[in-house]
Amino acid sequence: METGPTVHTCPVGHAGIEVVRGDITALDVDVIVNAANKALAPGAGVCGAIHAAAGPQLAVACRGLGGCATGDAKATEGYALRARWVIHAVGPVWHGGDDGEAALLASCYRRSLEVAGALGARAVAFPAISTGVYGYPDALAAAVAVDAVRSAETSVATVLLVGFDEDAAAVLREALGEAP
Question: Residues near 118 by Cβ (< 8 Å), separated by ≥ 6?
Fold first, then answer.
């Protein structure tokens, strides 16, 4: 029997951070962030799931944005998603940690929050950007995500860090300093 997302809250910095275990595409938030590629084309993992759930209009809208640089973020409508908008953030590919990956990954989170704030969003859900096929180690990516969100100046009230399964959520909780 499937249950709803599991939420762990840790209010810090300028936004409350919550760890959620579940499917980011099903969340009822203002914005979900897509772990996008530079072309903003449908891809694998969370990117493919977001495109599939949003419908074909999302790919059309993304083509009109002209791509996106690593570390940056751009917004589209959410189309068939519960979220009103999708922010497409391009994270770095992991090359061992000595190629500026942490700064670029942190920039993804900060830029996404800037874009979300400009849209008037109050609740934003992030996947684990740059993990999976981009190879960023989960624990290191979670630490960068938490630090970036904690240090961001934002009008966003709630940030959800979404782990698809319990292992991913546990890594996020650990980065927040919560007991497993």
Answer: none
* CA separation for the pair 108, 164 (Å, rounded): 19
pTM here is 0.90
Characterize the bridge pairing of strands 85-90 and 31-36.
parallel
Cα-Cα-Cα-Cα dihedral sign, residues 37, 42, 43, 48: positive
Give CA torsion, residues 106, 111, 116, 122, to 10 deg. Answer: 30
Domains along the sequence of the chain with CATH: 6-176 (3.40.220.10)
Q: What is the pLDDT of residues 78-107, one digit of tens each?
A: 999 999 999 999 999 999 999 999 999 999
Per-residue three-class SS string for 113-135? HHHHHHHCCCEEEECCCCCHHHC
Residue 11's contacts (CB-CB under 8 Å, 6 or more residues apart) are 17
CB atoms within 10 A of CB 86: 27
